[in-house]
Design a protein that fits this description.
The chain is mostly helical. Helices cover 72% and strands 0% of the residues.
Amino acid sequence: MTAPFFNSIDEAQQWNFVVILPLIAASAMILPVATSSDSPISVVVSLFPFCSPILMFERLAVHDPPQWQLALSLLLLVATIGAAMFISGRIYRTGILMYGKRPTIRELSRWLRHA
């Protein structure tokens, strides 16, 4: 069974790259963060919610970042998870009633506003 956005499993697998892209970006930033953990780019990427689980731990292993950065990273991560759950719940609640029909981006945005 595939998601309502895709016609086949092969089509869905092609979009896995979009989901994995933040993990690849975080992996590419491990060496720059390890070499200079207090640089502005290291701070910014370790606060970015999709990269923070990897890069903030890297910064913790190399050098102790300020406590406010740890707290902000955790807060942004929890807020992003909450927002993703909220958006997914609204889309699912509306979209489950339209079984078999592929929604467009326009319909998804309408579901988010009116549901």
